[in-house]
Amino acid sequence: MAQQPKEQTIVRAAVDAVEAAGGVAIKYSAAPYGKAGTPDVLGVLAGRALAWECKRPGGKPTALQAEQMRRWAAAGADVRLIRSKDEAAAAAAELAAGLP
Questions:
Q1: 15 near 41, Cβ under 8 Å?
Q2: According to DSSP H, which parts of the chain are helical?
Q3: Which residues contact 26 (CB under 8 A, 6 or more apart)?
Q4: Peptide bond into 32 cis (omega under 30)
């Protein structure tokens, strides 16, 4: 069985996918002044804010992360749970194309 990618590999792929599609993105780090539970990747692509939580395949957000994702979505951001490099590339392509 193939080894699962590390979460940091998926985060890097998500940031790279957004930037390759013409957007800007960062890996968010809560320390020391941030807000716990904020999604891993924050950015803007095609005029749309995005807040993506990255997990290894099968991983689930914590309750705090899920609440923060809900808040970002309610504020109008594109919020997704990204579990692979392919999901990151597909999500960035959808946003760049103006898809919901």
A1: yes
A2: 7-20, 63-74, 85-96
A3: 15, 41, 42, 43
A4: yes
Tokens of 37: 């539970």
* Structure confidence by residue, pLDDT tens digits, 31-74: 788 889 999 999 999 999 999 999 999 999 999 999 999 999 99
- Look up residue 22 and give its amino acid: G
Tell me the pLDDT tens digit for each residue of 70-79.
999 999 999 9
**Would residue 7 be called left, alpha or beta, if left means φ above 0 and alpha means ψ between -120 and 50 degrees?**
alpha
- H/E segment holding residue 92: helix 85-96
- All structural domains of the chain, each given as residue ranges with its CATH number in brackets, are 7-96 (3.40.1350.10)
